[in-house]
Specification:
With 492 residues, the chain is α/β, with parallel strands linked by helices. Helix content is 39%, strand content 20%. The strands form five sheets. A seven-stranded mixed beta sheet has the order 14-15-16-13-12-17-18, sandwiched between helices. The chain binds NADP nicotinamide-adenine-dinucleotide phosphate and magnesium ion. NADP nicotinamide-adenine-dinucleotide phosphate binds next to helix 7 and helix 8.
Amino acid sequence: MEPYRMYIDGKFCDAEAGAVTESLNPATEEKIAAFPLATAKDMEAAIRAARRAFDEGPWPRMSLAERGAYLVRIAQEIREAAFDLARVETLDTGKTTKQTTFIDIPVAANAYEYFAGAAGEIKGETLAVPAPAMSYTLREAVGVVGAIIPWNYPFLMAAWKIASSIILGNTVVLKPSREASLSCLELARVFHKVDLPPGVVNIVTGQGVVLGQHLAGSTAVDMITFTGSTDVGRGVMRAAASNLKKLTLELGGKSPNIVLADADLEAAAGGSLCAIFMNQGQMCVAGSRLIVEEKVYDVFLEMIATKTKKLKVGDPQDPATDLGPLISAAQKKIVLDYIAVGRKEGRLVAGGGAPKDLSKGYYVEPTVFADVGNNARIAREEIFGPVLCVLKARDAEEAVRIANDTDFGLAGMVWTRDIAAATTIAQRLRCGTVWVNTYGGFYNEAPFGGYKQSGFGRELGREGLTEMTQVKHVNVDLTPGGKSLVTSWFNV
Ligand code: NAP
Ligand code: MG
């Protein structure tokens, strides 16, 4: 593959110091491409370009329909290049081809198209202030948005953040994860192809500690939309205090997946595997705590263990593969260390290490620990890998108590045939999304985000679009000769 270049002010460029870093294929540990290792000076150039594009450029002054037409073309170009984009995403991240082909790339294309149409819903109101006056609100763009994304869904996270920002007239500086930058640099080619005006989206690659910190701390940036770990999120929040910039944080999770005794157990078992082993468990909304009602605990655990042992770990490009490698050697070590902890805290019923038949690649077996207490480290800390904890609950009441006993609050799942019970539990779970008899239902129309230390702010839906705006109140006094309380306040 030829070296990739960054995208700043509508031009492809190298890092100011000429430095590059390399992307590895996590399945083979081989280098696949070089891309720029930018400096803070490069980040500054990108911020200035985004600032200029917002303050002086045509973008925020275009009609919604004109901006929407760009987004529709972006969606079309992504669909035309979908095969290659999915291939790059799989090579760079180890995500299975099944996943990148059916989820990451097409869902991203849909997001650009959806936001092109949905932004018309974001509008001000006329307010019933005492007459004679007219008051109304305007929903205006925030300005320059810094978008920082993780490595688990790079192309899709970029879409959520970029589409919802630029449709409303904001301009963007995107900082992808150093572990997964290639598909975002491919995306730059799409933007260039559709002649997106210079500076509307800038993409800068390199180290988070350097670039992410600079972006979050810059006083020329109006807002940060961050997705990543809770600890880095805290640091971003501190840096964003420089100019008190607007902030949304989508952080980690330890989501409870409750299975009640009356559930369709076959469906619940399949859904529970999807909830923890999809994307090798590297999902912020992973159902990593499976809480099973006592009456069906043994039988359900048996189903989970049996099915887990049948999952096929291997080459992510093979359509028959269920789990590819993790993103990096470092992530593999983190997960294996947690498995070592888990051996002391729970009863291992499936997996438990790196697959013996794969000598290269950052593979970890899908692993299940039974009889885990909710105070165990593996039940409290986000592992971000294919490790499931199974917990026993006496009844629905105890299941909800365990579910809520966590610092996180991103998502929760409940499996039951009793829809009244499900809706009651949905109300009691302290988290931003609840899935009933399903998992992973993300819709462009529905807001997504966290409670508690899973962050704040929402993406997708009307709420997600509204985040990318600020509200202005305009008050027009219609009193003939002016309102005397104001015009004659001083009797001079
Ligand atoms: P991470 O280490 O927090 O990194 C996220 C992003 O922040 C990356 O682009 C990273 O760049 C950058 N970064 C690193 N240090 C920074 C700093 N000091 N200041 C500013 N930016 C910095 O997270 P990750 O390991 O990529 O992703 C896994 C985490 O993301 C998990 O905790 C997961 O739960 C969370 N996540 C949450 C959601 C959600 O929507 N709630 C979705 C996906 C993932 P580098 O990679 O170059 O260091
Ligand atoms: Mg890579």
